[in-house]
Amino acid sequence: MTRWIVLLILFSFIMHSSAQRPNILWITAEDLSPRLACYGDSLAHTPNLNELAREGVVYTRAFSTYGVCAPSRHSIIMGMYPSSTGAGAMRTHVRTSAIKDITDPELLNIPVYEATPPVGAKCFTEYLRQAGYYCTNNSKTDYQFKPPLTAWDESNQTAHWRNRPDPDMPFFSVFNFEVTHESKIHNPPSPSVISPQDVLVPPYYPDTETVRNDIAHHYDNIVALDHQIGELLNQLKDDGLLDNTIIFFYGDHGDGLPRAKRWVYDSGIQIPLIIRFPDQKLAGSKNNELVSFVDFAPTILSLCQVKIPDHMEGQAFLGSGKSEERKYIYAFRDRMDPAFETIRAVRDKRFKYIRNYRPELPYIGFIPYRDRMLMMKEINKMIENGSLKKDQWQFYSKHKPLEELYDTKNDPHEIHNLASDPDYLDTLYTLRSALEDFQLSHIDLGMMPETELIKILWPPNGIQPKTDAPEIKITDGLINISCTSEGASIAYREQNSDHWKLYTRPFPPKKGTTYESQAIRLGWLPSDVSRKSY
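The chain above was modelled as a monomer; its predicted structure follows.
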């Protein structure tokens, strides 16, 4: 009984300490480059995001790790590069919807598998839950492994901080908005808010009515996004939580337009990032530090006073664990749906170096989903008839140069390759060396065929292991749950409950209750459910 009292006192202390920690609200927009007034683009009317920027800090050099969602979301949830865990290819654990269009035997031989982080690595939200946070996700996951029960208190379309059992319990809540997603520009109606004539067409696109219409429709969707964000922020204000909540707004990668999404150019990886602090610290300022998606998880843990685990490859850019400013960000491109590719990139504050490991392939590849967009249909026709212009070479080139180098200050669209310019040899060498150093210090599983990769993730034969079933027993009057699979997390619930709790410590049983438990190791099959009645 004495041990029980000690544990309850300890739990009470932890919960009291966690109540002093900030709430965190994450607002994610899909497929969105920095097309906002706070970045100098006022075409879309976004009063709510404008206010957030006035009261917060605008990060001018924030980047995703990939130009597409699933690998980038893996970076966010794990604080690791997808190249380190087998998460680089787009949608590793499900087959693309375009499979019906595939006849190439090499493509048909691609295995289905889950990214598998190191033993004991968890989704960063699990560390928050351990620290007493109520974690909700509304509602996209797309982590390159099946979302574990232990990652969230709620992960569905009704998940909300308002559902936490104690109003004093700190929360970490994610809301994901899809209105700016690439699919919302597939065969759209005519733009209704933004005039196509007001659109600035980047030089890598042909300036046609179709291109202007699709870009204008994207801006229409940004206007709709701002309205949805305003409704969410009003909920936070109505609940009296604005003054003790840190708000993050960011895009999950660059625009969902051709030559943006899936590419390692800034059009595909640079994102808007606005952070508002409860006391409006540094309100209205701009931060020019380099920030990568791998930095998000350690930064949140740092802000919430939670120890950053050793497996994380990112670095905190805020909070008590803040690291020195990073010198480079790294970007990647691997198989995108059915299109094979291997590209690596490194960027400092001005220059971008790109290494094409499959220069024999064209840039655009075979991606039926992307080709649904009207502007891409038109560009494909222009490729066929040879009517694209010089600055649009990245669309029509049959092969890629081995190396690319861009001055993003003087050439923000990254169309003038300086890799062979003798005036930039020192810059080329510096960034090439930076990439090579990174590759020496970080394992890169994307450099091998997926048929071999799966054997590395699930040795020795590429067969997915299964997590051992947990054991539930009573010791000293408390329920203890354990699992023999190294590094596994444990979820449990009362049998009639819809809510799975994260098991962190022994707890007193309720008489006449049946408990269920499941163990999860990321990348492995979850265990069978164990049950025990008391």
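Residues 209-238 form the longest helix (30 residues).
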